[in-house]
Amino acid sequence: MPSATQVALAVLGPLAHAGSWWLVRTRRVSIWVGSGATLAVLGVAAVIVGPVVAAERFDVAGAVGLGALAGALLWAATAAFMAVAVRAVPALAAHTSSLYGERGDRSLAAALAVPLLLSAPGEELLWRGVVFGALEGSLDGPALAALVCWAAFAAVNLVSGSLPIVLGAVVGGAVWTALAWWTGGVAASVACHIVWTGLMIVAPPRGARA
User: Fold this and answer.
1) pLDDT of residue 209
2) Which one, of 210, 190, 194, 208, lies nearest residue 52 by Cα?
3) pLDDT at res. 207
4) What gap in Å lies between CA 136 and CA 175, rounded to an integer?
5) pLDDT for res 33
6) Alpha-carbon distance 62 to 180, whole Å?
């Protein structure tokens, strides 16, 4: 059974995540502050509260390699989907262009630093670490825990009001949750999330430019 502190973080962490998206959506803070700072703090809290497992069913190096490969494949699938979807759904093209426009005049290194070092790891440590762990210890079986974790993650990201963010949460969230479930830890999902995010910034899909 999860500890009281783990349950508290599994409840309050997603609420804080949703709150950060609301602040970003209402232009009270930038996505760099809202996503980066919030998820970095929640990631650190997840490590402190724990237990966050790297991989139970794989060695860590194998889990990281699997996650990196999955991240590259997820990016390729995303790029293929966007090439078609932005033509069919003008709102998606507008939202995607707006999202990438948040980068402003930041250099590529600066644009990569926050999501790769703070947002992606923090998100995985919270969601696929603490939240999934708490659900797995409370619900009847890991499959149900994975489903609830994925649904809650998608729901929280709905607050962003951004179509590419929501689509990324639905599809990416399913992949990251499945990796955490399969490997028994967060190493694979962290690697996947970082590789996918990095490639999405370095090689943006169609619709990323106005």
Assistant:
1) 56
2) 190
3) 63
4) 17
5) 82
6) 13
Can you spell out the DSSP letters for 165-187?
A: HHHHHHHHHHHHHHHHHHHTSSH
Q: Residue 209 is encoded by which pair of tokens? A: 């430019």
Give the model confidence (pLDDT) of 81-128 as tens digits. 999 998 889 999 899 988 888 877 788 888 899 899 999 999 999 999
CA distances from 194 to 49, 119, 198 (A): 23, 9, 6
Q: Hey, what are 84's tokens?
A: 């078609």
DSSP 74-105: HHHHHHHHHHHHHHH-HHHHHHHHHHHHTTTT
pTM of the model: 0.93
Pull the structure tokens for residue 24: 């970003």
Contact predicate 185/56, CB 8 Å? yes
| Cis amide linkage into residue 2, ω under 30° from 0 | no
* pLDDT band for position 210 (cuts 50, 70, 90): very low
Tokens of 153: 């993650």
